[in-house]
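Severity: low
Component: inverse-folding endpoint
Summary: output formatting inconsistent between runs
Steps to reproduce: submit the following structure tokens with default settings.
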């Protein structure tokens, strides 16, 4: 424990802390969500079931500063275990109901999950965090609703449900070893007794400020604190709730929701914000760097900036075209490039794009051509040539930091010219590390179709961009909902092809064998031979397919491996010199 803390520590059985006391505990505002998964719940159960003597569960740290004021003790360290123990007791209670031991089930509910006063009124021993409280009360702590039929609305709720079902299944396996009801009830009572006998170190403090500091230096069993957990703790420590509103908690909830909706980790967003705003730092040093460089007076500004940038981050990864059309200039073209980058599943450029969106109104010009350049470079460098992305982080961060520094001077001619120069310098740097033509052509020849949603969309993007080149316009975006990928040589060729799946497995999915068709034409074409399929292909209005029809006619409606390879090589040369030319 850190010096300067005033605390008391005692070895106690869990019963003295949780079950045979009228104390009530709550999860404080700065704590992370319930995070135990299969690995942690399995270890917990195995320890409980295999240890004969009472075993050591670990230390619990509680802050009792406001116990007299609001009736609750705050859990600083131990929330994962205490919530899990409550889930286990709920499963024991429900198994008791299943075997028609209603009196025992009622006893478990009144004594182990709830606290009953002398008038028969009950309250719960544990109050979960706000994000989980309603679900936890309804399906774990109450004795009425069946959790198996519940709908979960967050990862946290899903973990509670999954862990409950795991523990209930394990308990049922233990009780099913006996046919006799009394033996089954005794099994439940033995599990309950084991829980009560678990030994813990009970640490009590009486200072909220100390609680924040202790949280920073302690981890619950099996779960390390993340950058997001630690930063949340620091923000909450420095921005206390008001009389009727907890601004920091409400805003942090919005930040978390905005990032979670992108299916990426909070720590990535926080780092991208930091290295596009303050300085470049590796993830393992991020928290210390934030703590060191943010003064007590700047925590509110940091929280607001994270909130604003979480919306920009969500817009980059999830935003619709309508969101981008609200931007001045060619917002719809920026959307097309952003949408393409999403399909590429490459994240490093978001460091830079965050800075551009953050300062959009101070740039003094429409940056859509810059977005298009980043799209083309990302396709060449990351998607086709698969070159290392770690070197890009520093380049993008440096550029973002320059934009951030320059844009603070506001929109004026000098600022605009400086930012345009920053963009130009980055483009030159990226061109220097871009793949050579030979490398690009070599790797482009390997592009092929795979039956996954992500790969299908990427193939549609590639074919769609080539089609847009044929149409001599840069304003054409394939509608992914109404167009399908068509294999000219089918994956399951009909008899007229005189080929088996084994014969064609090395080349049937190559890009050179693919084109785009409307869903109606695609269903008509099916596995036909070329002479029949070309009749349907002629109905397409997409120039990439019109060009392919001309090629098939020149080949006298033959389509072999050499033709597929040759077409892909042509596509590769067109891609490098025209479509994705830097």
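Observed output (run 2 of 3):
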């Amino acid at each position: 424990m850190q010096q300067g803390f005033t605390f008391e520590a005692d070895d106690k059985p869990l019963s003295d802390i949780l079950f045979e006391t009228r104390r009530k505990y709550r999860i404080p505002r700065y704590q992370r969500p319930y995070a135990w998964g299969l690995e942690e719940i399995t270890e917990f159960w195995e320890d409980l079931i295999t240890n004969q003597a009472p075993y050591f569960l670990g230390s619990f740290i509680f802050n009792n500063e406001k116990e007299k004021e609001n009736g609750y003790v705050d859990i600083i360290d131990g929330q994962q275990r205490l919530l899990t123990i409550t889930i286990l007791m709920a499963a024991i209670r429900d198994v008791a109901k299943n075997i028609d031991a209603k009196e025992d089930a009622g006893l478990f509910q009144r004594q182990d999950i709830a606290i009953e006063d002398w008038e028969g009124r009950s309250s719960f021993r544990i109050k979960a965090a706000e994000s989980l409280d309603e679900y936890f009360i309804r399906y774990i702590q109450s004795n009425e609703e069946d959790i198996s039929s519940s709908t979960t609305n967050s990862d946290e709720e899903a973990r509670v449900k999954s862990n409950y079902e795991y523990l209930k299944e394990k308990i049922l396996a233990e009780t099913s070893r006996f046919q006799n009801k009394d033996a089954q009830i005794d099994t439940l009572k033995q599990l309950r007794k084991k829980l009560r006998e678990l030994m813990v170190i009970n640490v009590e403090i009486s200072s909220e400020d100390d609680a924040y500091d202790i949280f920073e230096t302690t981890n619950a069993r099996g779960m390390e604190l993340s950058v997001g957990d630690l930063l949340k703790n620091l923000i909450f420590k420095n921005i206390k709730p008001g009389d009727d509103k907890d601004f920091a908690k409400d805003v942090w909830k919005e930040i978390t929701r905005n990032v979670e909706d992108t299916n990426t980790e909070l720590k990535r967003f926080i780092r991208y914000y930091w290295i596009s705003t303050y300085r470049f730092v590796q993830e393992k040093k991020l928290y210390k760097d934030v703590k060191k460089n943010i003064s007590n007076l700047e925590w509110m500004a940091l929280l607001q900036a994270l909130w604003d940038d979480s919306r920009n981050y969500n817009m980059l990864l999830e935003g619709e075209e309508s969101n981008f059309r609200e931007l001045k200039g060619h917002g719809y073209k920026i959307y097309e490039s952003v949408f393409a980058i999403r399909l590429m599943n490459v994240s490093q450029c978001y460091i830079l794009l965050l800075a551009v969106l953050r300062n959009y109104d101070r740039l003094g010009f429409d940056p859509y051509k810059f977005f298009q350049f980043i799209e083309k470079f990302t396709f060449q460098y990351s998607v086709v040539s698969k070159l290392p992305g770690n070197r890009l982080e520093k380049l993008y961060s440096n550029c973002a930091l320059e934009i951030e520094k320059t844009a603070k001077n506001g929109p004026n001619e000098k600022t605009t010219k400086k930012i345009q120069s920053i963009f130009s310098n980055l483009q030159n740097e990226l061109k220097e590390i871009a793949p050579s033509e030979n490398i690009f052509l070599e790797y482009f020849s390997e592009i092929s179709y795979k039956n996954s949603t992500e790969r299908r969309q990427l193939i549609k993007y590639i074919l769609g961009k080539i089609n847009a080149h044929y149409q001599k316009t840069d304003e054409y975006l394939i509608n992914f909902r109404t167009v399908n990928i068509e294999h000219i040589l089918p994956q399951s060729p009909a008899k007229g092809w005189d080929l088996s799946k084994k014969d064609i497995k090395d080349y049937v999915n190559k890009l050179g064998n693919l084109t785009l068709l409307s869903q109606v034409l695609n269903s008509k074409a099916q596995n036909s031979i070329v002479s029949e399929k070309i009749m349907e292909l002629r109905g397409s209005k997409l120039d990439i397919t019109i060009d392919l029809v001309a090629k098939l006619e020149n080949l006298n409606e033959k389509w072999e491996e050499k033709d597929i390879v040759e077409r892909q090589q042509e596509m590769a040369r067109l891609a490098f010199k025209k479509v994705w030319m830097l």
